[in-house]
Design goal:
Strand order of the largest sheet: 1-2-10-7-6-3-5-4
Helix content: 40-55%
Structural class: alpha/beta
Distance between the termini: 50 Å
Largest sheet: 8 strands, mixed
Radius of gyration: 20 Å
Number of strands: 12
């Protein structure tokens, strides 16, 4: 198996796991081999039993047919299934796919499946899916008997470059994004870049938005390559995609190691998210892809940066040119959500953002490439950008 590994070390700031090991695997996707062959997926001090979680979309992927069959769940129907043959003693929970199912009810379905099978804290919760599923599975693990180990196999580009790394877990509540949750990092991530080739265009563009954000924040070289190698990105060139995933993972690791619980510099990773999460909430969770909303939010953040005298027009134009090239919304009023009172609704949603600590809204702005500012702004200034 061709793979390389690097670790996110938490420097004793988090008790659940001292580090997350990220395995980049450049082989054919074979989860049966990964988890049920000797010498793979090391168990450390756990029992070796796993409660796998998967959603209905991922369960239907041809590359997972043999794995899902190990649990007698060929029809990919939601429910809990017990392992057969090589998977005996393990279990598979299939949940409904989509942001609208990212709820505490789904989280508790995962917990219930573990309880019904007498899983212990030494057993492993393992999510095979995108950011929605990894968030919920880690949250379920954090709740289960005050904390079980969790692992991920991210299947979306968004999860590989951002969502599955760094320890954020949780679910949506009352139409607001990620309002319930905990910091609970996975012990191990097994990243197969080949999953990217199976994504539809919407999912791929959504994940690439988070990679683009990472380049704006931390990687001038990646920004330059994105600007110059646009066709390779659109074609999902395997070598470029793999290089991009690794660069994003390492950039996020450097930040998370210093600020696991988002007290200061980790907030930078929310560039575009304050605006973007508000748009997702107002349009209806799941109607707009997360990355599309973040890309729109990056545009709004740069407009606000410019209006506040932070950002030069030349930098804003470079970013906007790329936003438009890759098909993201860049106008103040996106076509997907533009009622007459839309600006006020988005502002109201922004006021509920988790980063806020006063009556003003905290935003992540930029004064240039890889030059980021965390600040609070007035409602009036935000409305000028909407």
């Amino acid at each position: 198996m061709q793979e390389n590994v690097f670790s996110i070390n938490y420097q004793k700031q988090y008790i659940a796991t001292p580090k997350s090991e990220i395995h980049f695997i450049q082989d054919k996707i074979d989860l049966k081999k990964l988890f049920f062959s000797s010498g793979t997926a090391a168990n450390d001090n756990t029992s070796g039993r796993r409660l796998f979680t998967i959603d209905t979309n991922v369960a239907a992927l041809p590359c997972l047919k043999n794995f899902v069959a190990l649990f007698g769940a060929q029809k990919s129907l939601p429910g809990a299934y017990d392992g057969l043959g090589a998977a005996k003693g393990n279990a598979l929970v299939i949940v409904k796919a989509g942001e609208k199912h990212k709820t505490i009810k789904t989280v508790l379905q995962i917990v219930e499946a573990a309880l019904d099978r007498a899983f212990t804290r030494k057993d492993v919760f393992c999510a095979i899916g995108g950011g929605v599923l990894t968030d919920m599975t880690a949250f379920a693990a954090s709740l289960y008997k005050r904390g079980a180990v969790c692992e991920f196999v991210p299947t979306s580009l968004l999860a590989m470059v951002d969502a599955a790394m760094g320890g954020k877990s949780g679910c949506d509540f009352d139409d607001y994004k990620n309002m319930i949750g905990a910091f609970y990092p996975a012990r191990a991530l097994y990243v197969y870049p080949d999953f990217v080739q199976s994504l539809n265009e919407r999912e791929y563009r959504s994940g690439f938005a988070e990679a683009f954000k990472t380049a704006l924040l931390y990687d001038k070289k990646m920004f330059s390559e994105i600007s110059k190698k646009r066709e390779l990105i659109k074609k999902r060139d395997k070598a470029f995609v793999f290089k991009m995933i690794q660069a994003c993972a390492k950039a996020k690791a450097r930040v998370v190691q210093k600020d696991m619980t988002e007290k200061n510099i980790r907030m930078q990773l929310n560039l575009g998210h304050t605006f973007g999460h508000a748009l997702e909430t107002c349009a209806g969770l799941g109607k707009i892809a997360h990355g599309d909303a973040v890309a729109w939010g990056i545009g709004r953040a740069l407009c606000l940066s410019q209006k506040l005298g932070l950002c030069p027009d030349e930098y804003k134009k470079k970013v906007f040119e790329l936003l438009e090239y890759f098909g993201w919304e860049s106008s103040a009023r996106p076509k997907c959500f533009c009622p007459k009172d839309g600006s006020k609704k988005i502002l109201c949603a922004m006021k509920r953002d988790k980063k806020n600590s006063s009556s003003k809204i905290r935003v992540i702005l930029q004064s240039g490439l890889c030059e980021t500012v965390i600040t609070e702004v007035s409602d009036k200034d935000i409305l000028k950008c909407l």
